[in-house]
Amino acid sequence: MAYEILRAANKGQMAMPVSARKILGIREGDVAALNNEDTACIDR
Fold first, then answer.
1. Coil, helix or strand at residue 24
2. Percent composition of the chain: helix, strand, coil (DSSP 3-state, to 5)
3. Residue 16 burial (CB < 10 Å; 0-12/13-18/19+)?
4. 31-34 and 40-43: which strand pairing?
5. Contact 8, 16 (CB under 8 A)
6. Is 13 helix (H, G, I), strand (E, B) or coil?
7. Which tens digit of pLDDT belongs to each residue from 1-44?
8. Helix (H) or strand (E) holding 40
9. In this predicted structure, what is the pLDDT of residue 3?
10. Which member of 5, 9, 36, 43 lies 3.0 to 4.6 Å from 13 by CB, making a disulfide possible if both were Cys?
11. What is the pLDDT of residue 2?
């Protein structure tokens, strides 16, 4: 299983690597929710 690391900026914004966005099908304006089980849910 591969994983990517997200980094939080000083204002709380998180940057997701392009490779992860492509795998998950995330585009600009999409909403993502993270939970404490290392998974992501994409709301389209």
1. helix
2. 15, 25, 55
3. middle
4. antiparallel
5. no
6. coil
7. 466 777 788 888 888 888 888 888 888 888 877 666 655 555 54
8. strand 40-43
9. 67
10. 9
11. 64
- Helices marked H in 1-44: 18-24
Amino acid at 34: L
d(CA 4, CA 39) in angstroms, rounded, equals: 11
Q: What angle do CA 34, 18, 36 make, to 5 degrees?
A: 15
Contact 32, 40 (CB under 8 A): yes
- For the record, the structure tokens of 41 come out as 């849910």
Q: Which two tokens stand for residue 1?
A: 């299983």
